[in-house]
Amino acid sequence: MSTESTQAKWDALLATHHQELTEEYISSNPHSQEAFNKAKRVLPGGNTRSVLYAVPFPLYTQSAHDAFITSIDGKEYVDFVSDFSACFFGHSHPTIVRAINGALEFGFSLGAITQKETDLAYKLKQRFHSVERVRYCNSGTEANIYAIATAKAFTRRSKVLVFQNGYHGGVLSFGTTSNTTNIPHEFIIGKFNNIEATEPLISPDLAVILVEPMQSAGGMQLASEEFLTFLRSAADKTGAVLIFDEVVTSRLHYNGLQGYFGIKPDMTTLGKYLGGGLSFGAFGGRDAIMSLFDPAKPQNDSPLQHSGTFNNNIFTMSAALAAADIVTPEEIQRINNLGDRLRQEGNQIIREAGFGSELVMIGFGSCIGLYSANDQKGVLRDCLYFSLLRVGIMIGRRGFLMLNIAHTDELIDRTLSALRNCISSIPTRDSKILS
């Protein structure tokens, strides 16, 4: 049988299996389907966060605790979505809950400065050594928007180097398709992890180099030390501002991946879990750059303006301070070790099931991506998603797992056992029916 014929038959077999799993999913989750149909009448696509759109419909959540999430159809799942890495502490961590409850008595929406934001700044500066001064905002997206604007003002240049498949927020997205909602900067798009392809794009009029030390939405692709060193050198030679987007990757090492690699950017953007699971973003860097916001500096005739009613809101400041005391190098290493075990043993299970050339778990530490070069439509990954879902394991629909500190060895054992059973039910390219 020819390779083309085998591929066509396998595609058809996968499609049939996928349809069966989809139909089972529909019949098993009637309340989610009903909620989705109702939502579509008032929300475009039935949601207000595009990444959560799903066919035939997304699961609707009723509650969550620790490492578990329960749907409105009453089914509990081990949660490996972890709110796309924002839920680093698991659901409703008691220390963070106490801090938020305390904020209710403290007073909120004050329209004033408190000492909490200063206390948090010292904690962030202790962890991320590139951050000499910092400002807060409400999301990683905002942090990257302001970081780019700050760097452009500092260099008085306009060109912004970003990378294919990079994601820095809903208006700073550089995937395989054009994002018409992107901010209209003068973007130059390089090839991630490719020095040879990027070097010709480095020029003296470059203002900003913005990079994720590991592309998260781009499939958990870890940058090489050589590539990041090249970007550091390029920024030094041209005077461009090197920004590390560590909104996600700051969870992978106590000092961020900049600390892991020993490469110091000029600016760093942060968000996600650092707000304790509440809306949070931060951008910081060298004092010479961040001082542009300081009206007291003699050279600042027109200091940069950065406002935001909720930049220092009491709920987030309280939760972030509580969260900062939970994050330790030891705890980060513990869940990184769990992620490494899940990745290593998971790949062995995948190979033994006959999918070694079709599917692989990649990533770093507690962030895992499911990668398949031959699964352009994502049917194989979707089959695995639905198969795991029906046995109580929830992974990211687009193919990722984000561990949080509520995950344990026992839950990893349970997940590996589920993976072994689920992937064995999916037809392989060598299935007898194809011969």
TrEMBL record:
<dbReference type="InterPro" id="IPR015422">
    <property type="entry name" value="PyrdxlP-dep_Trfase_small"/>
</dbReference>
<dbReference type="Pfam" id="PF00202">
    <property type="entry name" value="Aminotran_3"/>
</dbReference>
<dbReference type="InterPro" id="IPR015421">
    <property type="entry name" value="PyrdxlP-dep_Trfase_major"/>
</dbReference>
<dbReference type="InterPro" id="IPR015424">
    <property type="entry name" value="PyrdxlP-dep_Trfase"/>
</dbReference>
<dbReference type="GO" id="GO:0030170">
    <property type="term" value="F:pyridoxal phosphate binding"/>
</dbReference>
<keyword id="KW-0663">Pyridoxal phosphate</keyword>
<comment type="similarity">
    <text>Belongs to the class-III pyridoxal-phosphate-dependent aminotransferase family.</text>
</comment>
<dbReference type="GO" id="GO:0008483">
    <property type="term" value="F:transaminase activity"/>
</dbReference>
<protein>
    <recommendedName>
        <fullName>Beta-phenylalanine transaminase</fullName>
    </recommendedName>
</protein>
<dbReference type="InterPro" id="IPR005814">
    <property type="entry name" value="Aminotrans_3"/>
</dbReference>
